[in-house]
Structure formats: structure tokens, C-alpha cells
Amino acid sequence: MRRVSSIILGIFAIVFFTALPNAQAPSPTAAAPPAVTFARDIQPILEKNCAACHSGDLKLAELDLSNREAAMRGGEHGAVIVAGNSEKSKLYRMVAGLDQPVMPMQGDALKPTEVAAIKAWIDQGATWDAPAVSFAKDIQPIMERSCWNCHGESMQLSKLDLRTREGALRGGAHGPALAPGKADESRLYRAVAHLDAIKMPMQGDKLKPEEIAAFKAWIDAGAPWDVVATPTAKPATSAIAALENMELTPEQRNYWAFKLPVQKTPPIASKAEFSHPIDRFLDAARAEKKLVAAPRADKRTLIRRAYIDLIGLPPSPADVEAFVADRSDDAWDKLITKLLASPQYGERWGRHWLDVARYADSNGFEQDYDRPNAWRYRDYVINAFNQDKPYNQFLKEQIAGDELDYVTHETLIATGFLRAGPRVLFREKDNPERRWDYVDDLIATLGRGVMGMTVNCARCHNHKFDPIAQKDYYSLAAAVNGWVETDWPLVASRTEAEAYLKQNKDVDEKIEALRDKISAIEKPYRDELRAAYIKKEYPENVQRAVFKPEAERTPGEQLLAAQVLSGGGGGTDAEVAKKMTAAELAQKKELTSQIAAIEKQRPKTPPMAEIITDGDWRFAPMGRGDETIGCPKCRLPPPDRPNGTYLQEGPGKYEPPPTNFLIRGDPESKGSLMKPGFLSVALHGEHPTEIPRPDGRTSGRRLALAEWLGSNDNPLTARVIVNRVWHHHFGRGIVATLDNFGKMGEQPTHPELLDYLAVEFMKRGWSMKQLHRFMMTSEAYQMASVFDQGANVKADPENRLLWRYRPQRLDAETIRDAMLSVAGNINLTMGGLAFFPNVPKEILVTEQTKGRWDNQPDGPATWRRSIYIYQRRSLPFPMFETFDHPDMNLTAGARNVSTVPTQALTLLNNPFVLREAELLAERITSETTDPVKQIDLGYQYALGRPATDLEKKLALEKVKAGTLVDFTHVLLNLSEFLYMR
Amino acid sequence: MKYFWSRRDFLWRAGGGLSGVALAHMLNSQGLLAAEIAGDACSAKPLGDNPYAVKPPHFKPRAKAVISLFMTGGPSAVDLFDFKEGLVKYAGQPIDDKIHGDVIVRQGYPGPLMPSPFEFKRYGQSGKLVSEVFPNLGQHVDDIAFIHSVFGRSNDHVQAHYEMQSGQIRVGFPSAGSWITYGLGTESTSLPAFVVIADGRGGPIGGPTNWSAGYMPAAFQGTLFRASGDPIVDLKPVAGMTPETQRSRLDLLSKLNELDMEKFPGATDLSARISSYELAYRMQGCAPKAIDIGSESEQTKKLYGLDEPITEPFGRQCLLARRLVEHGVRFVQLFQGGMGNQNTDTWDAHSNIRSNHGQHAKESDVPIAGLLTDLKARGLLDDTLVIWHGEFGRMPISQRGVGRDHNPGVMTVWMAGAGIKGGQSIGSSDEFGYKTGEQPISYHDLHATMLHLLGLDHTKLTYLYNGRNMRLTDVYGTLIPQIVNA
Q1: Pairing relationship of beta strands B406-407 and B393-394 according to DSSP bridges
Q2: Using CA atoms, how far apart are residues A459 and A849, in angstroms rounded to an integer?
């Protein structure tokens, strides 16, 4: 049946596809299409259905349907009208529902007669009767927006009042503004067209070409002023308001994730041993499906589970034996205490957080530059877990570590969280729209990572499934958008840090001045060499342009000469030196030695941290590729903020740069100016959106956001982290989609338990270590995973209700760490610079020229734990990628768990794995030479248990026929080794 | 979140859980080992369900495989396939007054309009004008549909690469090859479904993100093949290990894993792991065989230009592409142009269009022509889509006197094979080749069309991520209606 329908579908699709070009051929019986006129038939349709979004201020998708020229040009997705061919015209296809998105986006679909009219109109050539320019329609909206603020009711700058025709004729301090019939002689036109020194509007963007054209046409037509100016609302405002505002229904607010969690009394359990609140909730859920809980796992299984879960390393045989021998009641408790106190705990659980933080040691994209100090943030995370920093404090430091009441090096380093995402950092000044991608990176990370909400879906429109308004997105954007990224010296005081930065800058500036002097001396010789180069290298037409007197060059030749003369060929230093006079050479030498002397004044670089703080990103210092080559006027204009600076230099209170609502997410379609805010639907109680800072250096907006996120009034934060921790302990979250608690995520299997845990977590001061202990001391955590119970399997095959423990495949890092640990060569040195395990040169060939991967030979330096391996965005460590390490560019939910042949190839053939197998064999051999004992010892090391008789027999056969490595290599490949059970 | 080979494993459904011994029996009797004994291991059918299992298309496909020829650096349309009378007519004049809006060049001064330094010649029955740098490729114009109106969104190499690959200029999104692997799987069990062969000079620009699976499981990412030796890293045992030793270790592993599995009846991830070792073992033998060009005739090698140093590297890449497609690989991504020197290593002709494009065209003309000839002769062109493209085009005005700057405003892309109607030119650039003219076509449109040819509806091929059914074409994509034969 399925097969049949797919074939039918296929045939239909092919017919549809191939028939497209002829689809408009009329059937013989159809009447000839009616003649349509633009003004009567089309214009009203466009005005009613299209103009709100595709004209005036909005021009969504850069599409302007207000005049033929603009309409034929199309928008950012290309042309929308192909005159004479409606079937190829997106305008028709979208209103006819043939292409996505169907238009109009909002409101009713067009009537069939209207669709037919559009089709006929396009097929007849899409003619557009040129309408006369109307003051009310074409000029007044521009005046309201761009003129009347300064030349209107509230003020009349230069004594000019443009509210009436008389006012314009009378003019201001510079004379009449209007010469009806003669646009070229009208100051108003010349000012908006930027033809004179006075360019209008003074503030804001230059008028668009079509607007300038409208002014010209209107003045040339006599400047009829058919409406008296009234302070009416702007026509666009209501359209913008409709886009921006979204009502929340009580039902939407009532969704479980947006209500504050409530701690209900756990149900009475069916068995006495289920006294733990977790077990009581689980027991009740199991009882409903008549599921029987598995018994406790044996102690060897439990200790391996606890070790791998909490510290990411398997227990040594001695650890196992000691635990098995400890018959005291609190043996399990003591084990948890010991592991939580182990510094390796922070390395294991810090790594889970680094997935959320999309952490990497490089920037990504083409250059993929090294982030030389990113590791300090990684170490901060490890230490925070080891110190059991309360989770809300942890968040606060990462989001607003630069604006806390007590700022320390540690809290500054913590802000590395916000800048951990990918950045292009090349030609940023030419691509200012990228800032919005960086904002999105922050909002996606905070949204999915911290709030479990796909807030970033609301970048271009209201969220399709969850009650998250686009306005919420831009309120959050306003809350974070004051940030800039900078390198901060980790010295004793802020004063000292600023002094260092200034000194460094002074040295740069002095040296630059001296270099300019050298360049000036060399210039004539460079020009000479360049001329020779041009004569040799360039074709005749270029030479002709370059070598004729400037005044005689045609406009094209001027361009040619400018680009060639500003280009290369100016010779090497040695070639230039040959041409310089002795005096000039001496002068250059003197300047060079001055540079060297100044270079010596450069202060020694202290340890630096990659932090964020408040400032105006639009004044970012020149970065890579930002320098203007040749043509200053070709650059985008600088931002229009007087005396703006990158870092807040004070005095006075810091004002963040403006953040506007962006209609359809388009940086060119600005809506209202946004105030900082949070997720409306999740708001309970009053929370400030700015917490003014005494020093005024930062806005306090991020601090306010962090306070809200970490408050007990926040329904999401505690639930989300508690669920993440549950996922790692139990193999699946109570909400399986760790980063999506919305409607499109999975619903909780045990909602009341989730709430109980969240409240308990907050009650206990957001302590992670207490949360681990709370979960691990439940019977549920200690259940066996081996429990074959037919009825259970039938009723709950996926074990969603947790009737047995869920085995988990080790993640990439743990597989590698476990091998090192078992083979006995692990180097547990903590923190500091990342290391580079060997990556085959065939793979390095694909790396970028500017990033780094400095292969280190196999040895103690590369036997450190996996969390310290360099995380390069453009070159993920191959072994980790094979074992499902997540993409470093995005905040991650649960990691994928795949089983693919390349994993087997890695474990079979990777030189590192084979080396570990050899080391394990050596370790075993050094302890015993008895083959049977060797096999048993191998099991103890790798799996924490003795070998069974059958296993011994099978292994012994191989070892006798081959070597011990044959066996240890197999050990490291066993499913049992690769799983936590 | 995706437990491949676990959720939908046939063993589980068949018997509510088979023991490891029974599994081993099946492996032996029906699957890999049997095929191995029969001497045809490299073409055995895959066992059970896996991430690469063949999935039915949405409708009857025209193409089974895609070979993407990516000219990195940005080949210039007006110097290769899109002859512009306007450039001759207005040679040496500024462009500013002839176009709408400001000309923004991001580096250096904008130059005047510059005609191509190359002659154009008519080829084939269609009389298509092609640059003199492609004398061999010119012979195939009647099999090629040229699309002259493709536009992109980024002026930077890497973002433009990513847009070509994933439809997005941002990182973190699956590439087209990943989507196709996800959508169709592969018939080959001994080779990856999505293979990348990079230029020997390194690169491409943007690195492995070019074939990343983004938010999809890593299983769908492209696999980088070396053009000689062992194609995949870690494919072969380290030096010194004999096949017997390895086989012996695998046997022990298999027995011990089977014992272990008995404790977890129905744990399909464990059975999948056992069979993945057998698949891996088989790949070791089959993958090198698939790329071994030793069996190719001298005539075939010559056809691809393996006899000339300048054409040998890309010729080898093209020949491998054909072999991989023959072996059931779905998507072969070739890169022409590497890293390093802008002028000699990529198509990035900022300084000199004549020397740069002259060189790169020479490197690729014979190999691409050879590929088309060979595919056609073997009947493979009927269901193999060959697509030639860069990441953006180049400006019609000069840069540094005789070079050209990047231009995402318009570029030429061509397709051949898979029922593509050859000898036609689709869409147009404007008078100068500066922006699109008729029928502008986005990358989304190209991706939609590519998927369509493979039998996939781009609006229906979705992957749930971030609470949303994601698509290669996002919310866009229009099929190019006239590109195929009726």
C-alpha cells in the first residue's frame, strides 16, 4: 500500500515538475483572459495585501512593491515578477499558493478572482501606470519620519518650518526651501539628495533613492500640498505594532514548564525499601503499569557505575576490592563522598557543562584563529564544579561576572561563557549584520542551555509552538547587547590593568608614527619601482591609463590608475634600500633603532583573560581584515554616535547602544527601540531589568538577567539543570529533550518528581554535589541493569518508567580516559594549556592556514585527560567526532549515541588504542606471568570483575596462540568496557 | 538521542530478542560472512537496520548519485561560460552610472568594466559560447544545462562555501551530502555514503565544516578520502599486524561480546555493535579496492588526463568519483582548488584573471570532460547528476588592474546527467554579469532541484531539531522548472 502510494506520488510529482513551463497554456474552452488595468485591478490588491510589509519603512525581504522599478528589481530572494510569464513570477506563485511562503503572510488569502487578475496582469506584461506623486501618500510619511522632528511642531531648527507649503516657501535661515517646479533649485531636494554641503536628515539614514526620486518628482510637479499636516499616527506604526505585539493567553501561561515548581509529598511506596522520595515517585509510576523494579546491582557493578558517572574513570582493582569488602551501612555514602571530593569530579562534570557552553579553543570560520586564553574559562568551569559553586552563582558569574558587587579575576574569566561561541573575526566592519548572529548565539545558548526553551526560534517571528513572542527575543537581545569582547590583564587592580592597556597602546601609536616616517622617506623609490613593475607586468591599456597625466585620464582610466597605483610592485626593502641616498639610509636606521628602543618600553604581557564587558561593539578596534585597503569611500560609514568608544571609558553612566526590534529578523528593518526584558510567559513576581552599578561602567542589564535566571521565581532554570543532571545519572532526562521543555520537546515522564527535585535543589542552595548525592542514594540509581522481566518489557519496552537501570555507552572522552586509566599511563595533571594528540597529516591537510594544531608525540604530555585536548572548531579531534562529540558551534542537548563501523575501525586500528593495549599488557605482565592470572587481572583492570571460567578458556586459547596484546586489545573493544551499566 | 541500530532493529522486531549465538548464526548464514566466502563481500547487502540503510525516495528519482565539482575560490562566469557583449561595449568605463545602487568593493579601489581576456567560441549543436580555456569541456555543451543567474549571500569565501553546502552562511547546519545520506541511505555497505576528495594542495577553505552533519548525528557527515593509498584514516591495521592476527582478535571479540549480550536480551545496540565490527572488517578490504585505479585501462587514464602532470591531480579525483559512484556512493564532493597561495592554489583571481583562470581551467578541463565522456560511455550519466559550481562569481570590473574581486551577485552553475536537458542556458545575468537578470536562482533553489532529481521533495525531507522540522532549504527553495527533459 505504501509502495503504491509512493509511486503515485512520484508520478504526480514528475508530471507536475515537467509540466511547469507550459502550465499557463489555456485550455481550449477557457475564455481569453480579461484585460486588466493596473490602477483599477492590481493596485488595490497590492495596497490591501502587500503594501503593509513590502513598501514604506518595512520592505520585508528588501522587497518594495510600491513602484514598478522597485517591484521588478525584486528583493533579497531575487526577482518576483517576470513580465509576461506569471508561472515564473514568485509574486504570482506565492499568492496562488504554489510556492512557500504563501502570501500574504498575515490575513486572508487572495480571492481566486484576485489571483487570476495578478496572473493576467503579469502575463500581459506587468504594466504599471505611473501614478502622480501624491503628497499625502508619498511625501508626508517621509516628512513625518525624517523632517518634522526638527522642522515641525516642537522645534523649527534654522527657523525652518516644513509643516506647511507656506513654511517651506518662506524657508529658514538659509533661504527658501522650495522652488515649485524646479527640484534642482530647491534646497529641500538638494539637501535630501546630498547635493550640497547641508545634508539631510541630520540624524538617521539618508533617504532611500526612491524617496529622493519622489521628492524630485513631487517638486517638479509643482509641490502640491494636498493635506494639512496633522499629528496623526504614522501609517507604518500600526503595522509594526501588529507584528511586534503578541497576547499571551491564560492557557499558554498554564503550561507546566512556565508554572513555578511545587514540591508535593511523595506518594506512599509499596515497599519499605522505597523510602527515598525519588523511589516513592518512581514506584507510583511503575505501579500504574504493573512494572516490577529490578533488584539492587551487585557491588562491583555499582562501584564502576559510580566512578564512571562521577569522575569519568573506572575504579582500580584495589578500589573495587575495598568497596566489596566494606560491609558497613554507609559504604555507598562514603564512596559518593570520596568521589565528589575527587578533583577528577570537576573534570567529568565540567565537560558536561562545556557541551552546553559550546566551548572551543578556536574561533571557527575561515581563519579559525587560536583563542590563546580560552582554557582559563575551561579551568574555571572545572573548579566551579569542584568547589560546588551554587549553580545560580555559577550562572551569575558567567553572564555578569564583570558587573558583580565583587569582581574578581575568577568572575571575569567566567564571562568567557558568553563569548565561547563561533566568531568570524575577519572583516567584521564590513559585515555589521554579523552582530545579530552573535546575539543569536548568546540567546540560543541562554535559551536552550539555561532555560530549556528554543527562544532563538523567535528571531524572525513569534515562536510557532511556544508562547515566546518575537518581542521577548529582542528584549533579551537588549538585555545582553551591551557586551563587547576584550582581553583583560589579570593584574592586581583595575587601575593597574588600565595602565597596562594604555602603556601598550602608547607603544603601538609611537611605533606607528615612526613607521609612517620611514614610509614617507621610501615612498618616491617605491613609486619608481612600482612604475617599473607596471611597465613589465601590465597590459597596454593599463599602462596607458597609469602613465598619462592625471587630468587626461578618462573616468575609467582614473579608476584603473587608482587601483593599480595603490597596489603591489613597490619593491622589497632591499630593492628600495639600493635606491636610497646615504643620508636617507642613515635616517631610516635611526628611526628603526628608535622603534626598537620604544619596543623595549612595552610592558611585559601579564596573564590575560578573554572576557566580556559593556561597551559599544560598533567601535571595536580594527581587527583582522578590517583595514581599509585603498578606497576609504568604499567603506561602510561609521556609526552615528558622538564620542562613542569600544570600552566604557567614563565618566558618567554607561548607555548601551540601541537595540531595535528587527522586523522579520532583518537588520535593515528596524522596529521599536527595545527595553531589556526576559521571557514574558515565565515571569513570576517583580524583577528589575537593570541593576544600576555604583561605578556606572556597565548597565547592570546582564546582572539583572542573571539574577532573574538564578532566582527561585524562575520556573525553568532549576528544572532544566536538575533534568540535565538526572540525564547523566540515569541515561535519559525526565524530559528527554534536555534543551527543549516546550511543546515540541518531549513531555516529562515524571512531572511531579521533576518538580520535587527542582524545589529540593533550590532549597539546598542550588548545590550540585548535594543533588548528585540525593539522586545517587536512591534505590533507583542502584538498580541492576541486568533484569530480564518479560512483562516489564511488554509494558514499557523503552524503560521510560525506569524499572531497571539504563546502560549508557561511554562518551568519547570517557572511552579515551578509561583506556589511559586502565593501561596505567594516565597523567592526571589538571588545568592549563590544552594539548594536541597526534592527528594524521592527511587530516591536517584540510586545516586552515591560520589556526593551530601542533601535533605532540605520544607520551605523558598527551596522556592527560580528554577535557584538556585542544578543541578546534574546524578540526574536531577525529576519535571524538567518531564517538559523537557534539558540534562545538551550538549549545548541545543530550549527545547522540550512534553505532557505526568507523567506531569499530578506530578501536581496531587507531595507533593510540593499540598503544594502550600494549601498555595494559605490560602492566599485567609486570604483575604476573601466569597466563590464567593475567587474563583474570585484565578483567579486573578493564571491567572491575574477575573473568568467568568460559571467558578464561576462550581468552587463554588466543593468548597461547598469540600474545597477551591480542587479549588486551580485545578487552578495550568489549561492549562491557564501552558501557556504564 | 538517536539510537541507531537499536530502535528499529529487525532482530528485535522479528523475535523479541535473539540470543548472541543466534545472531552470529545469522551473520554467518545470511550476511557478511557468507558473502565473504562467496567471494563477493564488497557487494553484499547490508544486514539489518543501520543509519545508512536504503530508504525509499519520495518519488521516482532521476539521479542515484551526485558528483559535485566545487571550484573553490570563486570562478568568474564572464570569463568562462557567460559571454558578455556589454563588457566589450563598455570596456574601460566605470560601472557606477550604469547600474542601480552603489558599487561596494570591500578591498581596494573599484576598477572600470573589464572584458574577458579570453576568446569565446561556439560549441555543439546548441552553439553555446564557451571560453577558450575549456576546449574539451566545450565538446559537452549539448549535455549541459548552464544556469547563469545563481546568486549568493556572502562575499566571504567561507560563509559562501557554507551556503553552497548547507544553504546557510552560518555554521552548525548539515551539508547537502549529509541530507542526501540521511534521506536515502546507501546501497554500499563497504563504503561511506558521502565521500569527499579534497585538492592535494590542502583545504578547502572552511575545512571539514564543509562536509559536516551539523546538528544531525555525526554518522551523516562526509568522509574524507585520500586520493591514493588507504583512503580513510584508521582503515587499515597498523604496520606489522597480520590479517590473521586481526581476524583472530575479531573472533575472540565476537565470542566474548556474544556471551555478554546474553545478559541483555533484546539490547539491539549491542547486536549492532557486534555487526559493526564485521562491517568495519569488510570495509578494510573493499574501500581500497574501490579506489584502486590500477585496473583502469591506459586509455581511460588518458581520458582523465592522468598522463599529464597539470591534469593528473584533478584527473585522479574525477576518476575516483566515477569509481565511487559505481560502487554505490551517493554523494561525491570534489574540490578543485586548495589552500595557500590565492593565485596559484585556488580560483581566487584577485590579481590576474588570465593567469589564474588559465591555470585552473587547464587543470580541470580535460578531467571534467573525461568524466562526462566516461560516465556517458558507461551509461552512468543517465542517473548521475554532475554539478559544477564555485562559492561565488567574480566582478565584471577589474581589481588591481587585471584581476577581479568576489561577486556573490551572480554566478554560473552548470548541471549535467540525470535527465538534465542539455544545451540550454537558464536564467541570465545582467548586461555586465554584475547581478542576476532573468530568473534569479538561489542556493536553496539549487538544493531543491538537486533533491528533486534524487527523488526527494525538499519540503518533506525534514529533520527534527530544536523543536522544529528543519529542511535543507529552510523555508525557501523553488525547483528550476525547465532543467530536465520531459
Answers
A1: antiparallel
A2: 34
Instruction: Check CB contact of A910 with chain B, cutoff 8 Å.
Output: yes
Structural domain containing residue B473: 65-232+296-483
How many A-B residue pairs are in contact by the CB < 8 A criterion?
A: 340
pLDDT tens digit string along A428-454? 888 888 999 999 999 999 999 999 999
Place of cell 549541459: B144
* Percentage of chain B modeled with pLDDT above 90: 59
Model pTM score: 0.79
DSSP A27: P
pLDDT tens per residue across span A455-497: 999 998 899 889 999 999 999 999 999 999 999 999 999 999 9
Give me the residue from B106, B399, B401 closest to A427, CB to CB: B106
Which residues, 6 or more positions from A664, have their beta carbon under 8 angstroms from its beta carbon?
Answer: A60, A61, A460, A461
Which residues make beta-bridge pairs with B387? Answer: B68, B415
Q: Is A899 on the interface with B (CB under 8 A)?
A: yes
3-state SS, residue A647: strand
> Residue A167 contacts by C-beta under 8 Å, 6 or more apart in sequence?
A160, A161
Instruction: Compute how many other C-beta atoms are within 10 angstroms of the C-beta atom of residue A532.
Output: 13
- CATH code for the domain in which residue B440 is found: 3.40.720.10
Task: List pLDDT tens digits, range B435-457.
Answer: 998 888 999 999 999 999 999 99
Greatest Cα-to-Cα distance within chain B, rounded to the nearest angstrom: 81
Shortest CB distance from B59 goes to which of A13, A843, A876?
A13
Cα–Cα distance measured from residue A304 to residue A782, given in angstroms and rounded to the nearest whole number:
11
C-beta separation of A934 from A925 below 8 A: yes
A 806-835 near B (Cβ less than 8 A): 807, 809
> Which residues on chain A are in Cβ contact (under 8 Å) with B111?
559-560, 563
**C-alpha to C-alpha distance for A764 and A781, rounded to whole angstroms:** 20
Nearest to B276 among A21, A554, A900 (CB): A900
Distance, first Cα to last Cα, chain A:
42
And the C-alpha cell for B111?
576598477
Amino acid at A777: T
Q: Which long-range contacts (CB under 8 A, 24 or more apart) does A313-318 make?
A: A313/A344, A313/A814, A313/A817, A313/A818, A313/A821, A313/A826, A314/A818, A314/A821, A314/A822, A314/A942, A314/A944, A315/A944, A316/A941, A317/A937, A317/A940, A317/A941, A317/A944
CA–chain centroid gap for A554, Å, is: 48
ipTM score: 0.82
Identify the three-state secondary structure at position B144. Answer: strand
Distance CA B441, CA B175 (A): 19
Query: A20 — contact with chain B (CB < 8 Å)?
Result: yes
Q: Give the DSSP per-residue string, B269-292.
A: HHHHHHHHHHHHHHHHHHHHHHH-
Residue A97 or B371, more confident = B371
Nearest-by-CA chain B residue for A627: B107
Q: Which three cell numbers stand for residue B18?
A: 535473539
A19 pLDDT band (50/70/90 cuts)?
very low
Q: Does A97 touch chain B (CB under 8 A)?
A: no
Q: Total structural domains in chain B?
A: 1
Which three cell numbers, joined as nine digits, stand for A277? 522520595
